[in-house]
């Protein structure tokens, strides 16, 4: 695969993520707040006039306004099983080969897989207990309802930033692995010109790489760091409310989890390394020793002290 084909593949992976995020926003408003397609049409129309201005928001606005022959919203009559051509899956598979955590795109791919389990889901819905997926208290208060819709917008925007940050992480790793010289700002400009993920947002990505061509992660750019800071309260509220009410929001949730992992100087992988060393003698590094120096502990006091390998997976 050449660099051009690869960039197109990553575009499609990001597209999967964008679509899933929009669907989760729609689901929170429809089933959480009990909003009609017409009401949501107005919300997406408003969103398309701001920082979320994009082709996918635009067509979602139009879809929600489309009526069937009987005057009912057409979207409500479409079966909730999503198909896929495979490009999202290819992006996720390659990310695993390169060791890059494009968690949001992966969740978007798996969300389509879960949607395809329609018969199983219908059966499970009558057998598995959980909270009723309705934000009744919020929906009943006009001010709270509008505030929550604003929070959903924040969750969508912040998660979108994470998705693109992960996509650029993948392209940077691929360029290093395959010897490519990718113009990251130029890629954003190309995508903005005529692709499905074209949006106002991509102009900010180009500006970030124009300012710093060696930028390691979009989340570290001054503009995007500030946008995430402003969006965080609403983003966290949406993920929390979705979890409490049993409204599935896998892409919103995994985007927030990645953000919290990425900003953590310390993660619990020290325990994981101890576990790997215990059952497989895979060795570990120590914080009080230089990086690249590996150790093995005989955790039980039985058996030998031979380490297997320093290969990490």
From TrEMBL:
Name recorded for this polypeptide: 6-phosphogluconate dehydrogenase, decarboxylating
Entry keyword Oxidoreductase: yes
Keywords assigned by UniProt, alphabetized: Gluconate utilization, Oxidoreductase, Pentose shunt
Pathway participation: Carbohydrate degradation; pentose phosphate pathway; D-ribulose 5-phosphate from D-glucose 6-phosphate (oxidative stage): step 3/3
Molecular function in Gene Ontology: phosphogluconate dehydrogenase (decarboxylating) activity
Family of this protein: Belongs to the 6-phosphogluconate dehydrogenase family.
Positions of the 6-phosphogluconate dehydrogenase C-terminal domain: 4-300
Quaternary data: Homodimer.
SMART domains: 6PGD (SM01350)
Entry function: Catalyzes the oxidative decarboxylation of 6-phosphogluconate to ribulose 5-phosphate and CO(2), with concomitant reduction of NADP to NADPH.
Signal peptide limits: none
Database matches in PANTHER family: 6-PHOSPHOGLUCONATE DEHYDROGENASE
The enzyme's E.C. designation: 1.1.1.44
Broad enzyme group: oxidoreductase
Reaction(s) the record says it catalyses: 6-phospho-D-gluconate + NADP(+) = D-ribulose 5-phosphate + CO2 + NADPH
Superkingdom: Bacteria
């Amino acid at each position: 695969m050449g660099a051009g084909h690869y960039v197109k593949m990553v575009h499609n992976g990001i597209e999967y993520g964008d679509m899933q995020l929009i669907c989760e926003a729609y689901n929170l408003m429809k089933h959480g707040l009990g909003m009609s397609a017409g009401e949501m049409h107005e919300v997406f129309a408003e969103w398309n006039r701001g920082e979320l201005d994009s082709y996918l928001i635009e067509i979602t606005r139009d879809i929600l306004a489309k009526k069937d022959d009987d005057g009912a919203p057409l979207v409500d009559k479409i079966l909730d099983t999503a198909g896929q051509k495979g490009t999202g899956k290819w992006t996720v598979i390659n990310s695993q080969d390169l060791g890059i955590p494009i968690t949001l795109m992966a969740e978007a791919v798996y969300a389509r897989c879960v949607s395809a389990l329609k018969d199983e889901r219908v059966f499970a819905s009558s057998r598995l207990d959980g909270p009723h997926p309705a934000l009744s208290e919020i929906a009943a208060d006009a001010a709270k309802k509008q505030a929550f819709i604003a929070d959903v917008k924040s969750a969508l925007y912040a998660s979108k930033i994470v998705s693109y940050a992960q996509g650029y992480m993948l392209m940077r790793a691929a360029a290093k692995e395959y010897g490519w010289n990718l113009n990251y700002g130029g890629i954003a400009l190309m995508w903005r010109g005529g692709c499905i993920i074209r949006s106002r947002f991509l102009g900010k990505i180009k500006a970030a790489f124009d300012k710093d061509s060696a930028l390691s992660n979009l989340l570290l750019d001054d503009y995007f760091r500030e946008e995430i800071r402003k969006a965080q309260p609403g983003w966290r509220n949406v993920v929390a409310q979705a979890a409490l009410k049993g409204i599935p929001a896998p892409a919103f949730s995994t985007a927030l989890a990645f953000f919290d992992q990425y900003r953590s100087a310390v993660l619990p992988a020290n325990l994981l390394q101890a576990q790997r060393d215990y059952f497989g003698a895979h060795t570990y590094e120590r914080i009080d020793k230089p990086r690249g120096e590996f150790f093995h502990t005989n955790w039980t006091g039985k058996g030998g002290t031979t380490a297997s390998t320093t290969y990490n997976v």
